[in-house]
């Protein structure tokens, strides 16, 4: 029985760790092959923040089931029923806490200034790119979600009539 409880806990942890991410390096399937709006901007400020974890209920359910099974094995029939209920409640609380912790992300708040002078703030998970004040960036907006990425180097356009 102990091995079963351990196995259920491991499965729950793996499921929770596979939850959604806000990483700018990961594109959601629904965003692939969609036209995105792109805006040029300049970074004004970057600061680290933490995106709080979510509680979808999966952790609570998994913890509750695990706690109920573990508690029901205690003592006789009556004691097992009471311990099963208490185990379910404790397991649900612990499962929610594990889910919230597992889905918490280190992120950045990036404040940018658009070419028209407007300022915007975007919070996104830390990705492979680093940003500093003064860096040229682009804001890519798809389906209402915006991410910040480094602006690509642009070669100067050839003058009209040149033989280049």
UniProtKB/TrEMBL annotation:
Swiss-Prot/TrEMBL keywords: Lipoprotein, Signal
InterPro entries given in the database record: Gly_zipper_2TM_dom
Glycine zipper 2TM domain boundaries: 59-99
Keyword Magnesium: no
Key word Phosphoprotein present: no
One Gene Ontology term, aspect cellular component: outer membrane
Signal peptide limits: 1-23
Pfam families according to UniProt: Rick_17kDa_Anti
Protein name (record): Outer membrane lipoprotein SlyB
